[in-house]
Amino acid sequence: MRERTLAIIKPHAVSEGFTGKIIDDIIQNNFDILAIKKIQLKKEEAEKFYQIHKGKFFYDDLIKFMISGPCVVLVLSKENAVKNFRDLIGNTDPEKAKNKSIRHKFGLTNRENAVHGSDSLKNSKKEIAFFFSNTDIINI
C-alpha cells in the first residue's frame, strides 16, 4: 500500500552539509518527495512535536538540540513508506545502525542521529499535519 511518512533532517546534519546527501539517499531508494521545506523550530513547537517524550530523561536535551539550528522537513511517499523509511534510516544509535543506513553514515549520537522518521502510519499522519497543510503537499 502506498503511504506517506514524515522525515526530518536534524540540525547537525543540516549544519554539516549532509542535507543533499540524505535527500539523494531518499531518492535513490525510490521515495517520492511530496513536500519539503527548511524551518527553524521554536521552543514551543519542538515541545509540542515531542510531547510524547515529556518527562523522559532525554527530553530537555532533545528540545535544545532540535531548536539549535534549521531542520529540513519532508513528506515522503512510497509503498509501505513508514517501514521502508525506518529501514533506510536505521537504528536510533548510529553505532548500532546497519552499514549504509542514513544514521550510520551521518549520525553522531542517539540524539544527533541525522534524521527523524515517523514510527507508525498513525503518527505519520499527525506529524505531517504538524508541519504541512494539505495544500503544501503534491498529490501523485
Notes on the protein architecture:
The protein is α+β, with helices and mostly antiparallel strands and 140 residues long. The protein has a single domain, classed as Alpha-Beta Plaits (2-Layer Sandwich). The protein is 39% helix and 20% strand. The protein has seven helices and four strands, in the order E-H-H-E-H-H-E-H-H-E-H. Strands 2-3-1-4 form a four-stranded antiparallel β-sheet, sandwiched between helices. It starts with a strand and ends in a 9-residue tail after the last helix. 31% of the residues are buried. The mean pLDDT is 95.
Indicate the topology.
Layout: E1 2-9, H1 11-15, H2 19-28, E2 32-39, H3 43-49, H4 59-66, E3 71-79, H5 81-89, H6 102-106, E4 115-117, H7 121-131
Antiparallel strand pairs: 1-3, 1-4, 2-3
Total individual domains: 1
CATH topology: Alpha-Beta Plaits
Q: Strand content of the residues, in percent?
A: 15-25%
In spatial order, strands of the major sheet run: 2-3-1-4
Number of helices: 7
CATH-scheme architecture: 2-Layer Sandwich
**Assembly state:** single chain
Task: Give the low-pLDDT segments.
Answer: none
Q: Give the helix proportion (percent range).
A: 25-40%
Structural class: alpha+beta
What is the residue-mean pLDDT, rounded to a whole number? 95
Number of strands: 4
The CATH class name reads Alpha Beta
| CATH superfamily descriptor | Nucleoside diphosphate kinase-like domain
Shape: globular
Order of helices and strands: EHHEHHEHHEH
What is the CA-based Rg, rounded? 14 Å
